[in-house]
Amino acid sequence: MTTRSTYHHGDLRQAVLAAALDVIAAEGPGALSLRDLARRAGVSHAAPAHHFKDRTGLLTAVAAEGHDLLARTLADTPDLRERGVRYVRFAVEHPAHFQVMFQPDLLRADDPDLRAAKERASAELRAGVADLDGIPDGPGAPGAREAGIAAWSLAHGFATLLLTHNVTDALGDRDPGEYFRALTGLLFTRRG
Question: Considering the chain, what is the average pLDDT of its residues?
């Protein structure tokens, strides 16, 4: 009887996720193939399906992991501007997650892990709006939702422009988070 050295893998799920993140960062989510990821992890072509079922399951797991990372990144940051800076830095440090997290057509929206992770990230995003002047207290209060969407749009839009190299010339060699902080300062400084 011959044994294959690739049969046992310490943490196949994490190995496949890590390989998927490498592929997404280099070539985009469209380049993902469970068969290719199995080859990279040194396991049979069917092995990743035990953890993810299919490509959509894998992308859903990537998105859930990304939302969890984002929630942790934003936690304990009371200032809305600093949450925006952290959001931009998250996108720079986790570009593969960022590419997948906001593409619902790639994901299983009803996945419980994804839904829970998205709620944690959303709660952290909403928490930054609570201290804004002129916004009624509480995330469900009138105006709070709109303010949250406005703040998210600004940070997400800048992060997307950054990752797609549309602001590379403007940014130069400046830190993206610091540049974002300066941009928000320009927009929200009151003139007297």
Answer: 86
Q: 18-57 burial, b for 16+ CB within 10 Å, e for fewer?
A: ebbbebbeeeebeebbbeebbebbebeeebbbebbeebeb
Return the CATH architecture of domain 56-188. Answer: Orthogonal Bundle (1.10)
Residue appearing with tokens 């994490």: 14
Q: Name every residue whose Cβ is closer than 8 Å to that of residue 95 and which is 6 or more positions away in sequence.
A: 25, 163
91 HSE (CA, 13 A, CB side): 24
> What is the SS3 string spanning 105-134?
HHCCCCCHHHHHHHHHHHHHHHHCCCCCCC
| pLDDT tens, residue by residue, 57-92 | 999 999 999 999 999 999 988 788 899 999 999 999
pTM of the entire predicted model = 0.85
Task: Give me the phi and psi of 31, to 5 degrees please.
Answer: -85, -5
Query: Which of these CATH numbers, 3.40.50, 3.40.720, 1.10.10, 1.10.150, describes 1-52?
Result: 1.10.10
Single-letter residue type at 152: W
Sort residue 150 into left (φ over 0), alpha (ψ -120 to 50) or beta. Answer: alpha
